[in-house]
């Protein structure tokens, strides 16, 4: 990291000194509040007065509001480590953060069909992509440029989800949301392959397993093909079978990847086991989606929550807990309170996706319990990490 002028840095409110601060805290606060509003909606309270389709709102906001906020925080922070160029901070960061926040606040009141909400929500991701592209192109670090078209793809999916809302086409909305979930899960697979074995090796004092090139290409290639296939292939038996096969290949190859990462060594290290367990939900979710396509007794909604509540929820809370400590100059250690948060994140997944399969008669209480567990997990994160993310680094360095 390049060292900035200390006086210039001190004039920036700590929350806007790097992207992880703004978007990790904002994303976690939103994840907590939005899930609370969803729970109240399930219980019959009118807390979304402007929203036409509350199910659309829930799916859209947890993907494009919460999930992509965390992605933005991650890439806007990592870019200075990748390029050696100082990351986005100050007014540019505050501006893109505001563009993310406004649609989140306006949508419950104005609804998903409000033009201002739509325009604002379609602006912030391209701005993140532009801020990301500039230093990468400047030093010609083409490997990390892939995040730019990915953010463009997510913007297109976001626009398509609004089109589905305007046209009242729920089947298109569901297809779009699942494609977005698969894309985010594939991104976790890409980044997980980079960092989870590395984190595990450093924390356990063991040698980092070297990637098997063929396995890497198979696991990630089949994942991205399945994502595009889910979005583009017609829903017919032949194509469903082909897509299910792609999902099966992606599931088994990603399970094989995880099996090489020494998961058994992480049982006493919460900052690691939450990542390994969260990654395990990826192949489970892919298998569940394949089963849903083949009409094997599971719905697409239930299957997809292995990836949303499971992989996204668990990996995200584990990653933001670790990254926030490292980038604020703190030791990579957490207390029992955060271990409880991790356990609640796992519980939210099991209640949402496993319990309704085992005991369909308690599906509604399971949904409510899952929402409460999610609120508890991310609420605890906000409480514990508020001082970490809103105060300067403890070592006096910028960032």
Plain-language structure description:
The termini are close together. The chain has one domain (6-390): Up-down Bundle (Cytochrome C Oxidase, Chain A). It is built from 14 helices and no strands. By secondary structure, the protein is an all-alpha fold. The mean pLDDT is 94. Helices cover 76% and strands 0% of the residues.
CATH superfamily: Cytochrome c oxidase-like, subunit I domain
Q: Count of DSSP E strands?
A: 0
Low-confidence stretches: none
* Form type: globular
Elements, N to C (H/E): HHHHHHHHHHHHHH
Q: CATH topology, anyone? A: Cytochrome C Oxidase, Chain A
Number of helices: 14
Overall structural class, as computed from helix and strand content, comes to mainly alpha
The major sheet is characterized as: none
Topology:
Layout: H1 6-10, H2 19-42, H3 54-83, H4 90-110, H5 115-121, H6 124-139, H7 147-167, H8 170-204, H9 213-232, H10 237-259, H11 270-293, H12 300-327, H13 336-358, H14 363-390
Transmembrane segments: 20-43, 55-79, 91-107, 113-133, 145-165, 177-200, 212-232, 238-259, 271-294, 306-325, 337-359, 371-389
Keywords: Membrane, Transmembrane, Transmembrane helix
InterPro entries: NnrS
């Amino acid at each position: 990291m390049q060292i900035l002028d200390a006086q210039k840095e001190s004039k920036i409110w700590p929350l806007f000194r790097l992207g992880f601060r703004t978007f990790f805290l904002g994303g976690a606060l939103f994840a907590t509040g939005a899930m609370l509003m969803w729970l109240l909606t399930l219980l019959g309270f009118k807390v979304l007065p402007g929203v036409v389709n509350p199910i659309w709102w829930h799916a859209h906001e947890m993907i494009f509001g919460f999930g992509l906020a965390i992605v933005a925080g991650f890439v806007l922070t990592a870019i200075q480590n990748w390029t050696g160029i100082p990351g986005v901070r100050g007014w540019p960061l505050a501006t893109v953060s505001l563009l993310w926040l406004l649609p989140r606040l306006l949508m419950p009141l104005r609804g998903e069909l409000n033009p201002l909400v739509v325009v604002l929500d379609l602006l912030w991701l391209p701005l993140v992509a532009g801020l990301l592209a500039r230093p990468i192109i400047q030093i010609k670090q083409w490997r990390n440029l892939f995040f730019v078209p990915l953010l463009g793809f997510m913007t297109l999916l976001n626009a398509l989800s609004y089109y589905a809302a305007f046209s009242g086409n729920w089947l298109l909305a569901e297809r779009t949301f699942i494609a977005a979930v698969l894309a985010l899960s594939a991104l976790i697979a890409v980044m997980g392959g980079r960092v989870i074995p590395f984190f595990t090796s450093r924390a356990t004092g063991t040698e980092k397993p070297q990637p098997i090139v063929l396995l890497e290409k198979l696991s990630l290639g089949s994942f991205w093909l399945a994502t595009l296939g889910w979005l583009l292939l017609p829903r017919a038996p032949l194509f469903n079978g082909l897509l299910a096969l792609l999902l099966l290949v992606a599931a088994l190859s990603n399970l094989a990847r995880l099996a090489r990462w020494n998961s058994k060594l992480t049982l006493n290290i919460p900052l690691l086991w939450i990542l390994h367990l969260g990654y395990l939900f990826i192949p489970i979710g892919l298998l569940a989606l394949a089963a849903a396509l083949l009409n094997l007794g599971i719905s697409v909604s239930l299957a997809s929550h292995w990836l949303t509540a499971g992989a996204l929820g668990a990996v995200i809370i584990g990653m933001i807990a670790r990254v926030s400590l490292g980038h604020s100059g703190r030791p990579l250690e957490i207390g029992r309170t955060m271990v409880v948060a991790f356990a609640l994140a796992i519980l939210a997944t099991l209640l949402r996706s496993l319990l309704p399969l085992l005991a369909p008669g308690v599906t509604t209480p399971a949904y409510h319990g899952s929402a409460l567990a999610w609120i508890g997990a991310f609420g605890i994160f906000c409480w514990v990490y508020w001082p970490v993310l809103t105060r300067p680094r403890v070592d006096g360095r910028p960032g």
